[in-house]
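pinging the channel bc i need a second pair of eyes. not urgent but kinda urgent?? the chain im working w is below, pasted from the shared doc
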Amino acid sequence: MKILVPVDGSPASIRAVKLAVDQVKALPEASLVLVNVQNFSGLSLPEGAEIMPSAWIQQEEQRAADEALKDVVATCREAGISYVTRTERGGVAPTIDRVARDEHVQHIFMGTRGLGGVRGLLLGVGGYSVAASSRCTGDACEIGSS
């Protein structure tokens, strides 16, 4: 069994990872797919950054992805579970749906609250969009902010 957990570094996404880790620990054949989805609008870059070279933008996206995944990778290592990480680029909901299908996951655990402000749209609205549009079979478990 595979569980997909979209991670943006928000408290809700970290709680979703912890719940998924508990599930994987209970089922030795299970594993996690941790995915961070980057898109230019979520990088909180200064005005005018869109004119920067694409290599610089990709570097900033990778830096943001590494930062978002850092703590949850440590959580998985400490738990001794099987996991993979993926950094993707694109629209959040369609990218999560594509990764879920590519990885043949049975469950998606994700927070319903993102990072707040414009960046909060990444998983706040994304959580609802994935639940509404995902074509993967299985369950979606949305982890709220409390």
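so Confidence is low (pLDDT under 50) at residues 116-125, 136-146. and Residues 88 and 145 are 24 Å apart (CA to CA). — does that match what u expected or am i reading it wrong
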